[in-house]
Each structure stands twice: as structure tokens, then as C-alpha cells.
Automatic annotation (TrEMBL):
<dbReference type="InterPro" id="IPR011009">
    <property type="entry name" value="Kinase-like_dom_sf"/>
</dbReference>
<protein>
    <recommendedName>
        <fullName>non-specific serine/threonine protein kinase</fullName>
        <ecNumber>2.7.11.1</ecNumber>
    </recommendedName>
</protein>
<dbReference type="GO" id="GO:0004674">
    <property type="term" value="F:protein serine/threonine kinase activity"/>
</dbReference>
<dbReference type="GO" id="GO:0005524">
    <property type="term" value="F:ATP binding"/>
</dbReference>
<keyword id="KW-0547">Nucleotide-binding</keyword>
<dbReference type="InterPro" id="IPR051931">
    <property type="entry name" value="PAK3-like"/>
</dbReference>
<keyword id="KW-0067">ATP-binding</keyword>
């Protein structure tokens, strides 16, 4: 739990192999500050899931 709190969010090993939509979706999920992080409803409306 400390690693999650103290270290930056994980990065994709090969971002060039993933779509920009997936990268954007994951970026919204991995924001540390809960008040800034997307809600489940926001994520369900993300273009990656459409």
C-alpha cells in the first residue's frame, strides 16, 4: 500500500503498442487524487468503452 501511495502511477511498458484511447482511459483511472480521478460513470462514458 505504501508503494501505491508513495510512487508515481505505473506506466505502460510499450505505450506505442496501445491506442491513445486506452492510454487516456488508464490515465483517468490512475489519478492519485480521488477528487480529480474520474468516477465510474465518467469512465463508462469514455470513448474507449464505446
Amino acid at each position: 500500500m505504501r508503494k501505491i501511495r508513495d510512487q508515481p502511477p505505473p506506466k505502460l511498458k510499450n505505450p506505442h503498442k496501445t491506442s491513445s484511447l486506452l492510454q487516456g482511459f488508464l490515465g483517468r483511472c490512475l489519478i492519485r487524487d480521488p477528487s480529480q480521478r474520474a468516477t465510474a460513470i465518467d469512465l463508462l462514458d469514455h470513448p474507449f468503452l464505446r
